[in-house]
Each structure stands twice: as C-alpha cells, then as structure tokens.
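tool_call: predict_structure(chain=1)
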Amino acid sequence: MLDNENLGVTTLIPVLCLPAFGVGLIEDITKKVSPRIRLFIIAVGGLCSLYFLNIQINSVGIWGLDFLLSFTIFSLIFSVFAITGLANAYNIIDGFNGLASMVG
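tool_result:
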C-alpha cells in the first residue's frame, strides 16, 4: 500500500527526469545541442534529484573513497558525477546500434 510520502516520491522522480529527457529529445531531433549543454542539464537535474529526494552516495566499498564520501560536499560532487556519467555512458552506448538495451 502506498502512503502519501511514497506517492510523492513516485510522482517527483518523473518530473526530475524531464530536463534530461527533454534535452536528449531536442538533441535527437535537431542535432544542435552541444555536449556541454547536455552535460550541464543532466548535472543540474541530478543535483535537483539529490536535493529533492534527499539521497546521495555515501559508500562504495573502497576505503579511501568512503572516507571522502563521509563529507557531504564530496558525496554530492561524486553523486552528481556518477549520475551524469551513467546517463551519458548509456547515451554513447545507445549510439552503437541500440546496444544500450542489452547493457541495461
């Protein structure tokens, strides 16, 4: 059973994904969106997701990195980097004959 908090999160996630989806769709249609703009929009969307969903990466199982991730600023930077990198990695892979469906 869904309570109000979970219902809010399930409606918030698609809204937070709209900027990345929108810039990707515009780029696919027009081919006129620079990679810097796409990276920036996805990074801002990732940062908004971290803020509104109150989530971040705190541990990856690597001793030195886990120590750095215990500090909020490093955790936020790493989380935004991971979100942006993953989204763009799938975009690059998908450019190779729709390969992303098999990787995902």
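agent: The helical segments are 4-30, 35-53, 63-69, 72-94, 100-103. Proceeding to next step.
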